[in-house]
Amino acid sequence: MTEAAQKLRLDKWLWAARFFKTRALATEAINGGHVQLNGHRPKPARALQVGDELEIVRGQERLRIRVLGLSERRGPAVQAQQLYEEDEASRRQREQQAELRKLEAAGVQPGGRPDKKGRRQIHRFKQLT
Question: Would residue 47 be called left, alpha or beta, if left means φ above 0 and alpha means ψ between -120 and 50 degrees?
Fold first, then answer.
């Protein structure tokens, strides 16, 4: 394997591995400091190699992954998932945060006027007191 085949631009790999929908979004995230390569803040054209470790922040998610393969082409999601391996601690933390967001969303009532069911409950409550 040639040396050129063993390295790939970071922004292109992030796009091919389906972390970002476009290369422009991947470049924007890298320039914004949301991607760290081996503990350092890289540039979009930085050469990525197999075995490198990335920390990616997308919204409220924080992913720590290790690069297992390189691909210049964006393929199906199944192939993209074979390009990296997520750290077990990162996966557990991400799942816990997702569960907390679900619980918070279930407990929050929307503001504004009550709907038909809510009005009936209010009327029943007022009649009992």
Answer: beta
